[in-house]
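Before a colleague's protein record goes any further, I have to sign it off. What it holds is a sequence and that sequence's fold in token form. Would you go through it and say whether the fold makes sense for this chain? The record follows directly below this note.
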Amino acid sequence: MTKRKGDDYDPAELEKELDSPKVYGDVVEHYRNYSAGKPAIAFCPTVASAEKFARAFRDAGFRAQALDGMTDGTVRRKAVKALGCGEMDVLTGVGLLVMGVDIPYATTAIWLRRTKSLRIFLQGTGRVLRTHPDKDKAIILDCVGVIEEHGLPHWEREWSLSPPAKKARRAANDNDEPDVLVRKCPACKRYHAPGEKKNEQGVEVCPHCDHVYPVKERREMELVDAGLRKVDQEEDERLRRQKRALQGQAKTVDQL
């Protein structure tokens, strides 16, 4: 489990998850395959990771630059302007470009950091949802599973001024499995709402590629033949003595 820092994931821990040359290469290839040449904003967990990813994009022949809170204001504005007019391919940022910046021409959001904050996810993704005459869609490259945590950005959500309550894990259908917030197709790797499309047999399929999801068999209750043991006062005393003896033998908190 990733450590937390405040209300969100620890950036240093997130950086460790990305600390592999293979990861950088895969991200660059994803961009090349799905969005090559389209202006992209990559959200990174740390300054070091933003610089590494920008370098990886440049090494692959793309025009890329890393921005962070210490970047000179003039340099930052020039980079944003370059992305907005097609002179820059990718901007990698940490703590920037999530909100308070308007780049309607930006087409692709590359998520390289996970976040517990729905606000950060929606604000960051919103950078590429702005309309522009030269783009017909936004592209989201989720490389860390942030959509699995928050769902698709266009989903309707219930907003409240009340503090969020802990959501109980509910059973899905009759399989005693937790509800799925979003489904990721194993064939085309794209996300969609659970049950969004079904075939003529009523079996769920991917709305993007028509991959048929396997139907899970209903689990029957398993009966195990086990005997019962009577615990009377004498047995109760024996178990209590045994417990006290084990406690007395403990030398450390872990042993206790």
Q: What stands out?
A: The radius of gyration is 25 Å. The helical segments are 11-18, 21-35, 47-59, 73-84, 118-126, 146-150, 233-249.
